[in-house]
Write a structure and sequence with these properties.
Length: 329
């Protein structure tokens, strides 16, 4: 623009290369979110289409070519080139992920750039037009733009990884119900394939649970002492004290299970023999397990409170193998 207006110089090669890098990053992040593995040629061809379209805006004045419908068509073509079709549902999901990553990245760039920029006054970047409107001026240097882009991609990728881990964890969470006499204790439990703790004498699998679940059922002080003391010491004190352990209603259910700690030392775990444990999970029929022990841990298993017990992998298998109770004729 001249006659007192603003003079602006646009370098087409920089516009092309910048959009090529951004489009390639968005496509790579989209592929990661959708667990896709496109070839490098497909990704490069798709990014090349997007970069060429952006550069064409400064080379030719074709209003309809840069309308909203034309931009949607170009973005659909980019997704098709990069990831193929694969059916309507798969294609729609790929397009949705592509737009989500694009908007998330752009929003991150704008937000981080405004955060990093400094101004003497919040009104410094605003201009009031003659019609009463407000024009917000956004100036961003190339280095700051690159930093903002990388940070926004990292934040979006980290959020995607966190969500993926959360979904994977949800698939391992079971609803269990421990039954003793007429009482029931429902607890969220994590299926841990690395848990191989058995009672060495009976080869009964041991389900580990926070002792806090049974704090009201245990003798006074046991829950707190289990955090730092060995169960055999705890039982010895209870035997010699005024409140003998054999007077406890669950005395006949007590077991001591030896196990090897992470540091290699041998320890004992206090365990209780329940009447049964019911396991259930969405999409799976409930399982009743009779041959199981409940080991008590004095700590907290999940800092977020997602689960309070750890299920032995053989418990579900043992429950599936146990014959169903006979029905009365």
């Amino acid at each position: 623009m001249t006659d007192g207006g603003i003079s602006m110089t646009v370098y087409i090669d920089l516009v092309f290369l910048n959009n090529l890098a951004v489009d390639a990053s968005v496509l790579l992040l989209t592929a990661k979110m959708r667990h896709l593995h496109p070839s490098r040629l497909r990704l490069f061809s798709s990014a090349l289409l997007g970069a060429s379209y952006a550069a064409a805006m400064f080379l030719a004045h074709l209003p309809y070519f840069f309308s909203l419908s034309a931009k949607v068509i170009v973005s659909l073509a980019m997704v098709f080139i990069a990831f193929g079709y694969g059916g309507p549902l798969r294609f729609v999901r790929n397009v949705g992920a592509f737009y989500a990553v694009s908007f998330g990245t752009l929003g991150g760039v704008i937000g981080i750039s405004f955060l990093l920029q400094s101004a003497d006054s919040p009104w410094g970047g605003m201009t009031v037009t003659s019609g009463g409107g407000i024009v917000l001026t956004w100036q961003l240097q190339l280095g700051l733009y690159a930093v903002a882009l990388l940070l926004s991609i990292w934040i979006l990728r980290s959020a995607s990884e966190t969500r993926k881990k959360s979904l994977e964890l949800d698939q391992l969470i079971w609803d269990i119900e421990i039954r003793i006499d007429d009482a029931k204790w429902p607890v969220k439990a994590l299926l841990d394939t690395g848990n191989r703790l058995y009672d060495p004498l009976t080869r009964t699998p041991v389900l580990i649970m926070e002792s806090g679940v049974w704090e009201d059922q245990l003798p006074e002080g046991w829950h707190d002492r289990l955090k730092n003391e060995s169960p055999d010491r705890l039982l010895t004190d209870a035997t010699t004290g005024s409140a003998a352990v054999d007077q406890w209603k669950w005395a006949h259910r007590i077991r001591l299970v030896p196990f090897r700690a992470v540091n290699g030392s041998s320890k004992l775990m206090l365990a209780i023999k329940p009447d049964c444990v019911l396991l259930s999970r969405e999409g799976h029929p409930p399982i009743q397990v009779n041959r199981v022990l409940v080991g008590l841990d004095g700590g907290t298993m999940s800092s977020e409170g997602t689960y309070r017990a750890i299920v032995h992998p053989d418990v579900a298998q043992a429950g599936a193998e146990e014959p169903a109770p006979s029905q009365p004729a």
